[in-house]
UniProtKB/TrEMBL annotation:
GO terms for biological process: GDP-mannose biosynthetic process. One of its GO terms (molecular function) is mannose-1-phosphate guanylyltransferase (GTP) activity. InterPro entries: GMPP_N, ManC/GMP-like_b-helix, Mannose-6P_isomerase_type2, NTP_transferase_dom, Nucleotide-diphossugar_trans. Gene3D superfamilies: Spore Coat Polysaccharide Biosynthesis Protein SpsA, Chain A (3.90.550.10). Keywords: Nucleotidyltransferase, Transferase. Residues 276-325 form the MannoseP isomerase/GMP-like beta-helix domain. Residues 9-268 form the Nucleotidyl transferase domain. This is Mannose-1-phosphate guanylyltransferase.
Amino acid sequence: MGINKVTHVVLTGGVGSRLWPLSRKTLPKQYLDLFDGQSLFEKTVARNLEISDKTIVVGNIENYKMSNAIMSKFDRPFIHIIEALPRNTAAAIAFAAFASESDDVLLITPSDHIIDGDDLYNDALQKAILLANQDYLVTFGIKPTKPETGYGYIEFENENVIAFHEKPNLETATTYLQNGNYFWNSGLFCFKAGKFLAELESQEPEVYWASKTAWEENKEGFLDYELSLNIPSISIDYAVMERSGDIKVVPAHFEWSDLGSFESVYDYLVQKGHPIDTNRNIVIGTSMHTTFIGVKNCILIYTTDALMVLQKENSQEVKQVYQQLESIASPLL
């Protein structure tokens, strides 16, 4: 069995609403230089250069210039697919698949995750690529370290997926952790382009054909707005992964975080030596002297036009603040 070419597909959509006010529509979290002087996007591309033969970036009309600026740092040509409006991950990945040869293996990664442990990461990728070459759709499972309510879960037995589960409440997440046969759903995938498209056409033909039409009419990677409106907005999980009979899961033993909340940013920064006081309070965004009195596990986020203080454990509630600002069309977004 021959090994096919591997294409790294970087998904750059999303505004990181749970990381407001750091993350904005004009500068989403994947472009912030907060991580060892690099952005998450740059780290993602660099991490996957050696294992892949080419790169496809799927972005949008609002962020493609930022992506281009970062990609110019790498000595590698790339395909840039620029969505006119977000249509979720099933369509985004379909565009990349249409831009590829049928037997190309696509390694799908979000642009805003932190991954540590290069050897363990590459080991997992090699296993996934091997399974993809056997015509499986592969997802990567992260072993839970706590009863997290912000992630979806994968119920598994060996490398077989029993079921995908929505983000649980705390009681259910605790049960998953105790049972030991549940992974966090990482949002990383690996499969042949043709295999994915065949599954998409079978499971969600409307998404398949509308995406195909939009792709065929692209102008130098830019997708047409009106044609894009015809594409149903649905995630790859709902469209394909939860319904296919050819799914495998590869355990991910590397350190991983989607940095989807200030709690996960807090944990990452503290691990990397970010200053923290005796009551485990931290400041992000300013070197101004700050004193916390009578509070513990708090995060102060400073920007030039917004200030937020929150309890670390309440990080998921930041999205409600974002939605409230969105409802009044606030310029702070």
